[in-house]
Amino acid sequence: MFRSFGSSLITLFIVLMAGFMLLFISKGSSDLAYERVPMENDKSNATYIAEFKAELQKTQSELTDVASTDNQPMEDTPKAKGDGEKVVLWISVPGFRGDLIEATDTPFFDRMKSEGGSTTKYRPNFPPLTYPGHMNLATGTTPEKHGITLDRIRNGAEVVDKPMDAALLTAEPIWTTATRQGIRTLVHDWPLSQNQSGENAAAHFLTSYDPALTDQQRLDALWEAWSNDKDEKKLRLLMVKLNGLSDAALANGPKEDGTLKAVSALDAALGEFFKKIEEKWTEIGPPDGNLGVILTTDHGMVSLEKNINLRQLLGEDLGKHLDIVAHDAIGHLYFKDMPENEGQKTLLIKQLDDELKKRIYFRTLKPEELPADWGYNVPGRIGDRVLVLKTGYAFTDHEAAEPVFDPSETSTFSAFGFPVEDSIRMSGQAIIWGWPNSPASGDLGEIGSQSFHATVCKMLGIQPAAGAVTDTLPVN
Questions:
Q1: Higher pLDDT, 77 or 100
Q2: Which pTM was predicted?
Q3: Do residues 92 and 138 both lie within one domain?
Q4: 53-57, 199-203, 377-381: which range is least confident on average?
Q5: Which stretches within 116-256 are classed as H helix?
Q6: In terms of Cα–Cα distance, which of 416, 437, 420, 452 is closest to 119?
Q7: How many domains does the chain have?
Q8: 267 and 312 share one domain
Q9: pLDDT tens digits, residue range 134-166?
Q10: Domain housing 391
Q11: Residues 162 and 283 in one domain
C-alpha cells in the first residue's frame, strides 16, 4: 500500500512541474520579438530567383548563337560540299610495288586507302617499262596504237633515249583529250608531255625533264604553277610523276631499308602537300569542287640477278649485221648490211637465230610471233627480232669481263629485273581517293593500265579519245 501511495505522489509532482513549465514559456515568450539580421552580401530569395532567370536566358542565347555559327562555313577554312565540278590530280609513282605500303609507316597512304578505293593487284601491260607503261595509262591504248615500245625507241634511223617530244606519240594522251574538250590541264614530268604544240596543248607543261629533281622539288613546282594560276576557269586535270621511290629502289633494291625509307618520305611529302590543298581549296578549286586523286604506277619490281651486254654476247661477227636497241627487259635487233643474195641472207639470218636460241636468258620472237594481247607489233619501232628477258635479268650498256655478269661489277643499275610475262610478280599499287568526297571505295581488285584514261574522262565529264579503251573503274 505504501509503495502505491509513493508512486501516486511522484506522478502528481511530475504533472505539476510540467504545468509550471508551460505557464512560464507561454507567459515569457509573449514579450519576445524575432528579427532576421542579414549577413554581409546576403540577398533575398526573390533576388536570387530573378538573377537565376536572367543568367539562364543569357546562356540559352549564347548557345543559340554558337549553333548558328557552327552551321556556317568559316571564312578562312574550305567547307566545300564536293557537289560542284570535279578536279582530278593524277600522281604516278614508278616502281611502286603493291606490298611496300604494308612494309613501312605510311599514315597518309593509309588514310587514302581507308577513305578511298585501292588495290595491290595493279597488273602492268606488256612491256612493264616506264615510258610504254605511262603511255598505256595516259592513252588507254597499247604500244600498237600509241607507238612507244621502249624507254629507248628507234624512230626511223634515230634512236631516242627517254623521249620527251609529244610528237612521237601516235595516240592521243589524256592531257590533249581533256584540253580539246575544254578542261584546263597541267602536266609535269609525265613521259612525252614536254614540248607540246598546237591549239590543244595543255595550259601548263614543261619543256624539259630534269632527272635530278627530288619529289619535294617536283611537288613544289606543281604547287607553284597551280596556286599561281589566275585564270577564271580553274585547272581541272593535273598530272605529275614522282621518281624518288624508283631512284631508291635502283640504288638499294626493291624492299631494302633505303627503299622503305623512300616510301615513308613520299608519304610525308604527299601528306604535307594535301594539307596545302585543303587550306587553299576555295582559291584553287572550282566552287564546291571535289578533288579526285588517282595514284598509279608503271610496274612493280623484282631483284636483279644478272646484267647482260647484248652486243658483247652476240660478238663482232654477228653484231656487225645488227642495230641493237636494248635496255632493261626488252631487246630489239634490226638487220643491217645483209647480203644481197637471198640465199646468203637466209643463211646469215638462220645463223643468227641459232645463236640466239642457245641463250637461256631470253626468248626470241619474230614480229609475227608476238602474242596479240601484248599489242606490241609496231612496224618501224620494233626490231626484226624481239628478245624478251626472263625474270631477274636486264640488258645494259655497261661492260664487264663477261657479257653476263653480276650487278655488283658495275656501279649503276643494280636494283631490279623485269619478269615481263609474269605480271603478278610485277604487281603494283593503285589508289583512288578524294576530298571532300572520295569517288571510289573498297577493294578495286585486279586491274590493268588501260582503263585509267576512260576513268579520268568519266570523272571530268568528257569523252575518251578515239581508239582508247572505254571501260572504266568503279568511280562516281
A1: 100
A2: 0.81
A3: yes
A4: 53-57
A5: 130-139, 143-146, 174-180, 215-227, 244-252
A6: 452
A7: 2
A8: no
A9: 999 999 999 999 999 999 988 888 889 888 888
A10: 306-414
A11: yes
**Domain shared by 326 and 432, yes or no:** no
Q: What's the rounded Cα separation, in Å, for the pair 96 and 379?
A: 31
Check whether residue 198 and residue 282 sit in a common domain.
Answer: yes
Bridge partners of 277, per DSSP, are: none
Question: What's the mean pLDDT in 221-245?
Answer: 97
Q: Is 6 strand, coil or helix? A: helix
Task: Assess whether 284 and 388 both reside in one domain.
Answer: no
Q: Which three cell numbers stand for residue 26?
A: 507561454
309-318 residue pLDDT tens: 999 998 888 8
389 within some domain: yes
Given phi > 0 = left and psi -120 to 50 = alpha, else beta, which region is 362?
beta
Q: What is the CATH number of the domain that holds 325?
A: 3.30.1360.180
End-to-end CA distance of the chain: 114
Backbone torsions φ then ψ of 472, nearest 5 degrees: -120, 160
Domain assignment present for 135:
yes
Alpha helices in 171-309 (DSSP H): 174-180, 215-227, 244-252, 257-284
Residues β-bridged to residue 331: 326, 387
Tens digit of each residue's pLDDT (9 = 90 or more) over 380-412: 899 999 999 888 888 988 889 999 998 888 654
Q: In angstroms, rounded to a whole number, what is the distance separating the alpha carbons of residues 235 and 246? A: 28
